[in-house]
Write a sequence for this structure.
C-alpha cells in the first residue's frame, strides 16, 4: 500500500486529513520494519489460508440458503 493509496482510501471513508494519512503510513512502515522477510511471508501465507477457508465457508452457507 502506498501513501497515495492510503489517502484515497481515507477520502472514500470521508476523512480528509493528510496529517492522519502521514501518521498511519508511518505506523505501517514502522510495523513492517520490525518484521523480517521470513516472518512477513509466513503471516501472508496464514492470511491467504484464512481467506480461502472463509470464502469456502461463505459459499457453502450461501448454497444452504439459496
Amino acid at each position: 500500500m502506498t501513501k497515495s493509496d492510503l489517502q484515497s482510501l481515507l477520502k472514500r471513508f470521508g476523512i480528509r486529513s493528510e496529517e492522519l494519512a502521514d501518521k498511519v503510513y508511518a505506523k505501517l512502515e514502522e510495523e513492517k520494519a520490525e518484521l523480517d522477510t521470513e516472518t512477513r511471508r509466513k503471516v501472508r501465507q496464514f492470511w491467504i489460508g484464512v481467506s480461502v477457508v472463509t470464502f469456502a465457508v461463505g459459499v457453502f452457507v450461501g448454497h444452504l440458503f439459496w
Observations:
- Helices lie at 3-12, 18-34, 37-64.
- Residues 3-64 form one domain.
- The mean pLDDT is 84.
